[in-house]
Amino acid sequence: MPPCTHRPAAQQHKVQDRRQIKINAMVVPSAAPECRAAAAVFCRRGIPTVDMSAPAGRGELSRQMVRACAESGFFKAVNHGVPPRVAPRMDAATSAFFAQAAPEKQLAGPPNPLGYGNRSIGTNGDVGELEYLILHTNSDAVAHKANAIDKKEPQRFSQVVNDYVEAVRQLACKVLDLLGEGLGLRDPTSLSRLITATDNDSLIRINHYPPSCATTAQERHLVAPPRCTAGGGATNIGFGEHTDPQILSVLRANDVDGLQVLLPDAAGDDVWLPVPPDPSAFFINVGDLLQALTNGRLVSIRHRVVASTSKPRLSTIYFAAPPLHARISALPETVTAGAPRRYRPFTWAEYKKTMYTLRLSHNRLDLFHVGDGDAGGGDDIEQE
Ligand SMILES: O=C(O)CCC(=O)C(=O)O
Questions:
Q1: What element of type H or E holds 136?
Q2: 71 lines ligand 1 (CB under 6 A)
């Protein structure tokens, strides 16, 4: 096994929509871990990295982005334009929250699904080595929750979160508009308009992984035997494998590693690839809804977090979502005779409801596949 890959037990995720494309044609290479064999191209060229300042022009930027999202569902955005003080302020405010004693933090819980949670993820038995805070990005919702999160200065906490949300929303919109252009959409802003609708359902999630469940660095780069994970897991799981259900996720973390993405190697077998941390960058994940909207052309990326060694990992993820009533259906430009419609139309509310009945690792989109013979044309995005 090469040092930068973990082969998942029994290759259990041969999902129907899994891309067959190998990782190639990546953009600006960034530092990659040592790698001997599997997923060698990814390892050799580094993770797909996109320079948002568009040194080669906007057209080339949108092509690079579509390629990264079609091949791996994931890229690292550099020169992203997020003001430099926004993220450190958010880190300081959320670190102060997590530094409190447990009874203080519990005042912001339980996660139903918003609020403070510890180890338990969702209501179907998933657990991870982390504590977290989930907030709706609506400023009224932030202000309401801030009273339990920062009892001394709730308004200051709200301001920090609102500034962060605004900055990452702008980044997400820029990415979606560029993807819209690269996909040749008649209205390239149709994707970003879903997440700027006043009643959008976007969330912000802050994960804090304490350094309690230690593996050695060597173990993390090999197949890590479990040390403190019960139940025969192959590694110490901080956050179990899953795809993000929304449209797009914008992830930023401190300089502690742990994030891994699942991608096929040269033989077509899925392997876990560690993503080197970079607090100056944002990592963009395609979510399930974007896969459905693009009729599978862009693929949602399966990822997980493996518990780290000596330092706590702090990550903040903005999940860009449409309004609950938004109807999700393949965009007409993505449906052709050769690429018939893959998913039946559904609302985000319906998708969320289904998601809440399933384990984290479930491939939820498979439940929305159209059967043979009922694949019609694509629809325009509608918000009912
Ligand atoms: O904490 C991380 O780096 C990623 C966590 C994640 O995938 C999630 O919260 O959905």
A1: strand 126-136
A2: no
